[in-house]
Every structure is written in structure tokens, then in C-alpha cells.
Write a structure and sequence with these properties.
Complex 1 LYR protein domain-containing protein; Complex1_LYR_dom; ISC_assembly_LYR
Length: about 100
């Protein structure tokens, strides 16, 4: 029976995956991978079986390696920013002018 990963190992992998997900230059990819990372780790957190937990952790570690490579490629070939991404800045300027 394999040893389940420690809580610190899980949190470390989670924060690394979130950081990498947020590094995508494309808005849609960035939002998708942040959402997917959070969903994946919610499922891992709910798991009670140590063998299944180890399997989920190893799958997430493999996904992290793919995610890292994908983020690098996306940064190289990222397109222009979308109007949705600039919305927060507009609201801040509008509130500051009044």
C-alpha cells in the first residue's frame, strides 16, 4: 500500500499549478486552467482512500508537467489582450475620477 502524499506536498503542488495556470497569456486558457486546477484539488481533498489519493496526486503531478510546458508555449505565441481583461482597470479609473 503506497504512502499518501503529505498535506504540505499537496499544498505545494496546488500552489505551483495555480501559479502556472495564472501565467498563461491567453485569457480563456488562463481562466480554464485556474478553474480546472481548483476542481482537481477539491476532488483530491475529498478523497479518503490512501491508495486513490496517491494515484490522484501522481496524476496531478503529471498534469503539472504538461501545464508548465503549455504555459511556456502559450506565452511565446499569445495573442492580443481581450476587452474582458481590461474591464477591471476601466472600473478602477471610473471610480477614481469621481
Amino acid at each position: 500500500m503506497p504512502n499518501p502524499p503529505s498535506r504540505t506536498a499537496l499544498m505545494s503542488l496546488y500552489t505551483s499549478m495555480l501559479r502556472t495556470s495564472r501565467s498563461f497569456s491567453s485569457y480563456n486558457f488562463r481562466q480554464y486552467f485556474v478553474r480546472r486546477t481548483k476542481d482537481t484539488f477539491r476532488a483530491i481533498q475529498a478523497e479518503q482512500d490512501p491508495a486513490r489519493l496517491s494515484l490522484l496526486y501522481s496524476d496531478a503531478a503529471k498534469e503539472f508537467a504538461v501545464l508548465r510546458r503549455s504555459a511556456i508555449v502559450n506565452q511565446l505565441y499569445g495573442g492580443p489582450r481581450l476587452a474582458v481583461e481590461d474591464e477591471g482597470k476601466e472600473r478602477m479609473r471610473e471610480g477614481g475620477d469621481t
